[in-house]
C-alpha cells in the first residue's frame, strides 16, 4: 500500500548517538592493555591515545567531505568504488565480509560477554564457554532488533550512548579525585625509553584506533540522514572531540589507580579499576561497560548491513541483499547475512588475535578511501562541496594509515599475512563472478530460482524509490 524504501529517520541527535555509540564501546575498556603492552610505558601509551584521537579526527573530517561529495550510502565501499574503481571496492567488500566485520563483531561480542558475567564470578575469571554463550545471545538480540525496526534500533543507540558516557564518568571521576589528592606515583618515569620497542608501535596504534573506530559510521547510512550536508560534519566534529577528551581522562584515571603491571595483568581493565577504586560500584560498572559493548554491536550491524545493501544495488553482491522487508522497511537479508560468520569467530576466537587479524585490512582500505578523496578532488575540480577540509588532512591521514599498515608486517607477520591473503583471495572471485561473470553464466536459472524463493520466504522486495 506504500512505497518500499529506506526512510530518512536519522536526525542530528541520532547521528551523534550513532557515532558516540559506535566509538565508545569495548575499545576503551579492553584496548588500554594492548596499547600499553606495545608502547612500553605509561607516557608513550598516552601519546599513542592522543595521536590516535587526532588521526581519527583527520579521518573523520575526510569522510565528512566524502559524504557531502558522494550522496550514496555504503561508507568505505562506495567511496572506493566511486573514486578508485570496481576492483579495489570489491576487494574491500570481500575482506570486510569474510574478515574485518565478523572479527570486529566477535571482539565486541566477547567483550560484552566478559563484562556482563564479571560481577557474578569475581574475583575469579568467568568461564570461557559461559562468556561465549552470553556473547552470542547479545549479538543475536541486536540482530533481531535491527531486522525488526530501524526506529527502535536508532532509539536504542541513543539510550545506550547516554549509558556509555555515564560509564566513562564513573571511571573518570574517582580517578581525577585521587589524582587531585596527589596520587601520582604511577606516573613516575612515565617515558621510560628502555621498554620502548619501535616495531611494536603499529600494534599499539591498531589497539588505539580500534577504540576510536566508529567515526566513519554516518557515511554508511548517508541516504537515511536528515539534512546530511549539515548534520554529517557537525555530528562528526562534536562526537570525535567528545571521545578524545573522554578517552584521555579515562586512561589517566586507569593509570592513577592501577600500576603498569596491574593493567597488563587484567583481562578486563575497567573491572580491575573498580575493584581498586570504587568497590561500592563493583557490580554496576561492568554491567554499564557490557551495555556499552551492546551499543557498539547495534551500531555495527546497523551500518554494515547498508554496505551489503549498496554493494548488491551496485551489482557486486547477490541481488537478494538489496531488498527491503515489505512491512518493516529494514534491509532484512543484509542484516541477517553476518549471522554464521560472527557465530564461528566468537566460538573459536581470542580477542587480541582477532584485533590484529582484522586491523590490517580495515586500515588499508580506510587509507585507500581517503586517497580516493584526493583523486576525486583532482578529477572534479569544478565540484563545489558544501564541506571541504584542507588538503593536508586527507594526505596526512592516508600516509599514516598506509605506513602503519606496511610497518605492521614487521610487528605481527603471521596475523597480517593471513589478513593480506584474505584480501588477495578476492582477485579470482572478482575476475570470475563480477568482471567476466563466468560462474554465474553457468547457473542463471538456479540463481534466479533461489533468489525468488528466498524473496518469498523473507517477504522482501527491491527498493522502489531512489534515495540518492
TrEMBL record:
InterPro entries: AA/rel_permease1, AminoAcid_Transporter. It is found in: Membrane. GO terms for cellular component: membrane. Gene3D superfamilies: Amino acid/polyamine transporter I (1.20.1740.10). It is a multi-pass membrane protein. The chain crosses the membrane at residues 12-30, 42-64, 76-100, 120-142, 162-183, 203-221, 233-257, 277-297, 332-354, 360-377, 389-410, 416-434. Its main location: membrane. GO terms for molecular function: L-amino acid transmembrane transporter activity. It comes from the Eukaryota. Keywords: Membrane, Transmembrane, Transmembrane helix. PANTHER family: AMINO ACID TRANSPORTER (PTHR11785), CYSTINE_GLUTAMATE TRANSPORTER (PTHR11785:SF533). This is XCT protein.
Amino acid at each position: 500500500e506504500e512505497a518500499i524504501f529506506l526512510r530518512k529517520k536519522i536526525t542530528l541527535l541520532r547521528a551523534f548517538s550513532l557515532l558516540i555509540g559506535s566509538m565508545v564501546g569495548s575499545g576503551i575498556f579492553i584496548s588500554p592493555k594492548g596499547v600499553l603492552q606495545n608502547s612500553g610505558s605509561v607516557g608513550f601509551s598516552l601519546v599513542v591515545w592522543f595521536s590516535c584521537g587526532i588521526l581519527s579526527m583527520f579521518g573523520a573530517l575526510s569522510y565528512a567531505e566524502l559524504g557531502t561529495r558522494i550522496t550514496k550510502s555504503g561508507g568505505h565501499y562506495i567511496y572506493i568504488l566511486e573514486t578508485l574503481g570496481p576492483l579495489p571496492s570489491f576487494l574491500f567488500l570481500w575482506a570486510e565480509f569474510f574478515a574485518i566485520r565478523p572479527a570486529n563483531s566477535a571482539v565486541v561480542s566477547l567483550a560484552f560477554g566478559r563484562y556482563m558475567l564479571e560481577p557474578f564470578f569475581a574475583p575469579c575469571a568467568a568461564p570461557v564457554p559461559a562468556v561465549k554463550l552470553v556473547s552470542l545471545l547479545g549479538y543475536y538480540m541486536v540482530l533481531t532488533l535491527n531486522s525488526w525496526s530501524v526506529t527502535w534500533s536508532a532509539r536504542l543507540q541513543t539510550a545506550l550512548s547516554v549509558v556509555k558516557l555515564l560509564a566513562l564518568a564513573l571511571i573518570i571521576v574517582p580517578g581525577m579525585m585521587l589524582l587531585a589528592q596527589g596520587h601520582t606515583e604511577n606516573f613516575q618515569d612515565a617515558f621510560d625509553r628502555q621498554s620502548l620497542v619501535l616495531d611494536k608501535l603499529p600494534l599499539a596504534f591498531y589497539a588505539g584506533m580500534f577504540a576510536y573506530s566508529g567515526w566513519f559510521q554516518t557515511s554508511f547510512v548517508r541516504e537515511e540522514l536528515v539534512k546530511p550536508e549539515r548534520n554529517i560534519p557537525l555530528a562528526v566534529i562534536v562526537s570525535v572531540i567528545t571521545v578524545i577528551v573522554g578517552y584521555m581522562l579515562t586512561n589517566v584515571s586507569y593509570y592513577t589507580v592501577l600500576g603498569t603491571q596491574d593493567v597488563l595483568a587484567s583481562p578486563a581493565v575497567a573491572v580491575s579499576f573498580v575493584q581498586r577504586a570504587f568497590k561500592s560500584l563493583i557490580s554496576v560498572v561492568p554491567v554499564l561497560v557490557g551495555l556499552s559493548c551492546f551499543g557498539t554491536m547495534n551500531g555495527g550491524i546497523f551500518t554494515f548491513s547498508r554496505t551489503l545493501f549498496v554493494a548488491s544495488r551496485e551489482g557486486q553482491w547477490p541481488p537478494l541483499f538489496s531488498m527491503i522487508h515489505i512491512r518493516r522497511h529494514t534491509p532484512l537479508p543484509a542484516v541477517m547475512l553476518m549471522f554464521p560468520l560472527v557465530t564461528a569467530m566468537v566460538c573459536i576466537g581470542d580477542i587480541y588475535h582477532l584485533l590484529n587479524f582484522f586491523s590490517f585490512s580495515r586500515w588499508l582500505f580506510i587509507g585507500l578511501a581517503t586517497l580516493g578523496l584526493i583523486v576525486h578532488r583532482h578529477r572534479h575540480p569544478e565540484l563545489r562541496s558544501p564541506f571541504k577540509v584542507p588538503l593536508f588532512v586527507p594526505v596526512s591521514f592516508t600516509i599514516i594509515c598506509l605506513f602503519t599498515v606496511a610497518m605492521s608486517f614487521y610487528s605481527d607477520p603471521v596475523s597480517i599475512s593471513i589478513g593480506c591473503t584474505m584480501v588477495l583471495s578476492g582477485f579470482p572471485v572478482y575476475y570470475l563472478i563480477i568482471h567476466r561473470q563466468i560462474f554465474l553464466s553457468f547457473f542463471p536459472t538456479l540463481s534466479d530460482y533461489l533468489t525468488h524463493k528466498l524473496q518469498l520466504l523473507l517477504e522482501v522486495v527491491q527498493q522502489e524509490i531512489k534515495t540518492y
